[in-house]
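Please fill in the sequence for the structure shown.

STRUCTURE ENCODING:
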């Protein structure tokens, strides 16, 4: 009986670990996808030190841009990414 319980615990742990790994991969790929698109967008030439955090459809953008238009454009890119539910735009506008 104890062997059956132990086996169930091990299998349950392995399944939850596999799900966590898949979730992390999805989160990282979503953040990577957004950051790649931001870096590739020619209208964001002033973007510096950009970072993207993504978890469960919630995205946080950080970095510095030259204008309000660039800040808005970065947020549009994030919002247009499949699976994104909300964007917290913490991008700063560089002061001249």
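FILLED IN BY: designer on duty
SEQUENCE:
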């Amino acid at each position: 009986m104890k062997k059956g319980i132990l086996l169930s615990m091990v299998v349950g742990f392995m399944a939850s670990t596999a799900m966590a790994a898949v979730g992390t991969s999805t989160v990282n790929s979503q953040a990577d996808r957004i950051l790649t698109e931001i870096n590739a967008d020619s209208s964001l030439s002033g973007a510096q030190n950009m970072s993207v955090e993504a978890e469960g459809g919630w995205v946080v953008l950080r970095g510095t841009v030259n204008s309000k238009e660039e800040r808005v454009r970065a947020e549009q890119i994030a919002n247009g990414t499949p699976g994104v539910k909300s964007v917290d735009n913490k991008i700063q506008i560089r002061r001249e």
